[in-house]
Each structure stands twice: as C-alpha cells, then as structure tokens.
Amino acid sequence: MHSKIFLTTGEFAKLCNTTKNTLFHYDTIDLLKPVHINENGYRFYSIDQFSTFDMISVLQDSGSSLKEIKEFIKHQNADNFLTILADKKKTIKQQQQHLKQLNMSIDYIIQNTKKAMDVTYFEPIIELVEEEHIVCTPFLEAHHNEQDYYESISSHIAYCQKYEINDDLSYGVIYKKEDIFRGYYRESYYYSYLSKKRNIPNMKTKEKGTYAFIYHKGSYDELKNTYQILLSYITNNNLKVISDFYEYELLNHLQTDDPNNYSIEISVMVK
C-alpha cells in the first residue's frame, strides 16, 4: 500500500538527514525524482521514497557509485542486491589490507625518523641483532650515468609492487664485503625490510648475530670516509667481517629536502 503523504524537498531532505542539493542532484541524474512538481515548480516527494533513499545510502556507504546504483535500480531484486554487496565486500577487504600495509609503512617511517634523531653519528658501536627478513633485487648494471642509477631504483620498486611489498617505504643497498675491502663502492643489491617471512623470490634472511654499526649524516659523497671509520674500528678491535655491508636510509627525501641532512645506517655482521 502506498502512502498519500507528500513532503516538500526541504521536509524530505530533513527526513532523510541529507541536503536539498543532494536531492536536486539525484533528480538531475534521474536517480531519485520527485513524484510531483506543481505549476510553481515546487517538488514534492512521497514518504514511500524514503526506502529508496535509504537503499541508495546503503549502497553508497558500501562503495557503489551513483552510476552503479542507478543501474541496480533498473533491475532491482534480491539476487542483484546480494551480488553487488558481495562485490563491495571484496573491495572493502582489499582496501582494509591496503590500509593495514600503509599503517605498517607509516610505522617504519616513524621508527626510522625517531632513530635518526637519537643516534650518535660517526661513532661505531656493536649490537646484537635478531633475525630479520629482507627482499633484494640486483642492480641492473654498473652505473655509467644517473639514468642507470634510477633505473635500478625503479626496478626494485616495480618488484615490490609486483609482490605487494608495502611494509617499508625506505630502502637500502648491499655492498659485497670484498668490494668494500678493496675500496670499490659498487652497489650489488637494493633491499627493503619485510615485517615477516614470506615465500617469495629474492627474499633473504639476515642472520641473528653481532653487528657493527655506524651512522652517517650528510651527503653520499662523504660515505667513503664513514666506511673507513667503521673498517678501522673493526680492525682495531680484532673483529672479523662475516657478511656483506648493509646501507640503509633512515632519513631521505621523504623527511627532508636537503641531502646534507640525510641519515644513513651502515651495518655488517662481525665476530
């Protein structure tokens, strides 16, 4: 049974907890039209249309576009309603996963930024490090120009996107220990940290053990000097290098626009 109660646009908007402009827009796109327009151009809605407006709101809240809702109304039935909600539920689940990954990425940035503000620079230290998991991609070729360098970065980012690795928005580089010992500072791999172990290609486990650390602040051009400080410390303390060298950015272009303020952590496993 249909009600004979009619409401003005303002009254219907108040009933639906919306605005007159929203109703005007729905009218314009033929989504929800008034049941009557008098000779003065005033629009009137039936109170029965509240259920239609409520259905539109439910579908909008679930992520449906007005175009999708309009198409659904043309073929409105229970099966179609279940189908559209099932599709939106899948989309919401994907969005929740994305937000979860984004939240982890933000946690990494906060952690790195705080660490960069607290550490002492250019003074080597020894720390016991728990097992960690990283994903590595090889450098494409020896860099002959800046374009080659950024192509290697782009390749690493593309790999992370392929495997939906969004845990860590920063990245580091790995230098072979034999290259560092002979003063050849050529990057071998890019790497990013993983929040947990994953069964994907190019995943590597950094072993639990004792690591020598040093923190560099300033331009990349001065990194060799910082490496020399670390190597001298290792030699003077009769330590042996048993891993490649890991170089990881704590502060980069995300936090500062001045490369001289970049903060870089250098670490290597020793015994």
Characterization of this structure:
Keywords: DNA-binding. It comes from Breznakia pachnodae. This is DNA-binding transcriptional MerR regulator. The chain is α+β, with helices and mostly antiparallel strands and 271 residues long. It has 8 helices and 11 strands. A hairpin with a 5-residue loop joins strand 2 and strand 3. The longest helix is centred in the middle third of the chain and has 41 residues. It is elongated and about 95 Å long. The N and C termini lie far apart (85 Å). The model has no long low-confidence stretch (mean pLDDT 88).
Short précis:
One of its GO terms (molecular function) is DNA binding. A hairpin with a 5-residue loop joins strand 2 (36-37) and strand 3. The protein has helices spanning 9-15, 20-28, 50-61, 66-74, 78-118, 146-162, 177-181, 223-236, and strands spanning 6-8, 36-37, 43-46, 125-129, 132-138, 172-175, 189-194, 203-206, 209-217, 241-251, 263-270.
